[in-house]
């Protein structure tokens, strides 16, 4: 059989085999960083996982394609997103055994238009034509988006039909130092599908790039409607309360004034400073001021 007839046969065979109807790629819109790297296997075949519509099929996101995005809607293998350090395997369709193709590291334009036959040797992904299972060398999987396309000396037939792959490799910026826990254990290391990296998303009481900062104000230490300000001097649990005029003290719990008889209705009064006092409530009674403000103008 001549090489030309082999190509013809493979193309015809695949055209018969291609599943009709759209393929929706499985996606996590937001992914969490895995501590362990993963082996990812991509089946280099036209029989499944070929999507065409950029948003609704390839990315499974509900967004109308704008005019600029229209040229991104090309048949392709479901795009993948990897973590830096993951390994990628390409497993080729058995019927490609004698077809004699390679993969090429293409530019975005070449990915969209499919590469011509006269492709640079040094952009070929594998040293030989692909047969069965091949591991993609890490040199092709640096941080960023990579476009791998089918390369065949007779032309980009199968690339045009969908044998092209968008691989995005992301790294994480979730550790303050290499051995520190992700997001200081106070958040999650996440990446949205359109983000270029993983970053920390902190639990409610924490902030900072690595969730290393505890927001002490979130514990509401300032009482009596005082406003709380985190102090930026780097000291943990440092805050300042801006008390309303009638309150004082670190947490605005002390009342401005001095103890007088019956100041505290159902409790004992104690002076804290020459200017402030506190009421200690009897069992069963609560309240900030023990009616102090209601009675002070009348009784004292
Ligand atoms: C998106 O498409 C839907 C239906 O296809 C349409 O109702 C909607 O108005 C479109 N939105 C935009 C922003 O074009
Ligand atoms: C892959 O192709 C892109 C676009 O042509 C190029 O910028 C990049 O350097 C290539 N990668 C490698 C490892 O050669
Ligand atoms: C997509 O189409 C727009 C407008 O037609 C063009 O400016 C842009 O260069 C195209 N992008 C690619 C990657 O071909
Ligand atoms: C490739 O995938 C990335 C997301 O990882 C996306 O932003 C980009 O538009 C895709 N490129 C093409 C040409 O589909
Ligand atoms: C202020 O409140 C904190 C708890 O929020 C407490 O630990 C501290 O002792 C209080 N300080 C004063 C002076 O009441
Ligand atoms: C607390 O302060 C807010 C605004 O500063 C004010 O609207 C509200 O009435 C105050 N509440 C009390 C109980 O004083
Ligand atoms: C108030 O003081 C009295 C007398 O010293 C004491 O018996 C009582 O337990 C105190 N009450 C509170 C709530 O501390």
UniProtKB/TrEMBL annotation:
Q: Which InterPro entries match?
A: EGF (IPR000742), EGF-like_Ca-bd_dom (IPR001881), Notch_Cell-Fate_Det (IPR051022)
Q: Which cysteines are joined by disulfide bonds?
A: 183-200, 202-211, 243-252, 259-269
- Which keywords does UniProt give here? Disulfide bond, EGF-like domain, Repeat, Signal
Which interval of the chain is the signal sequence? 1-21
KW Signal (keyword) present = yes
Query: What's the superkingdom here?
Result: Eukaryota
Gene Ontology terms for molecular function? calcium ion binding
Q: Which Pfam families match?
A: EGF
Q: Where is the EGF-like domain?
A: 170-212, 213-253, 255-291
**Matches recorded under PANTHER family:** CRUMBS FAMILY MEMBER
Protein's name according to its UniProt entry: EGF-like domain-containing protein
Question: What organism is listed for this UniProt entry?
Answer: Bambusicola thoracicus
């Amino acid at each position: 059989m001549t090489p030309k007839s082999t190509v013809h046969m493979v193309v015809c065979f695949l055209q018969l085999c291609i599943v009709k109807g759209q393929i929706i790629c499985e996606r996590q819109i937001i992914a969490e960083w895995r501590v362990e790297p993963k082996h990812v296997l991509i089946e280099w075949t036209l029989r499944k996982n070929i999507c065409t519509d950029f948003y609704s099929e390839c990315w499974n996101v509900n967004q109308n394609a704008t005019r600029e995005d229209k040229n991104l809607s090309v048949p392709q293998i479901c795009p993948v997103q990897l973590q830096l350090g993951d390994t990628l395997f390409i497993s080729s369709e058995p019927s490609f055994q004698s077809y004699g193709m390679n993969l090429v590291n293409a530019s975005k334009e070449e990915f969209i238009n499919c590469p011509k036959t006269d492709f640079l040797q040094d952009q070929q992904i594998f040293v030989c034509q692909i047969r069965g299972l091949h591991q993609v060398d890490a040199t092709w999987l640096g941080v960023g988006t990579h476009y791998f396309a089918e390369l065949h000396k007779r032309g980009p037939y199968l690339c045009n039909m969908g044998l092209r792959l968008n691989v995005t490799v992301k790294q994480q910026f979730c550790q303050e130092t290499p051995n520190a826990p992700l997001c200081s254990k106070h958040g999650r290391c996440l990446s949205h599908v359109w983000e270029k990296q993983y970053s920390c998303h902190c639990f409610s009481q924490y902030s900072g790039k690595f969730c290393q900062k505890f927001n002490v104000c979130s514990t509401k230490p300032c009482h009596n409607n005082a406003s709380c300000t985190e102090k930026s001097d780097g000291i943990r649990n440092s805050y300042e309360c801006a008390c309303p005029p009638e309150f004082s003290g670190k947490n605005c719990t002390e009342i401005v004034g001095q103890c007088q008889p019956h100041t505290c209705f159902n409790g004992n009064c104690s002076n804290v400073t020459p200017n402030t006092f506190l009421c200690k409530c009897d069992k069963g009674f609560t309240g900030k001021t023990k009616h102090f403000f209601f009675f002070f103008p009348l009784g004292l």
